[in-house]
Amino acid sequence: MKYTKKCPKCGGENIVRFDGYTGAYGAGNNVMVGKSLFSAVNVNRYVCCSCGFTEEWIDREDLEEIEKSKKAKK
Question: Can you give the pTM of this predicted structure?
Answer without folding.
Answer: 0.82
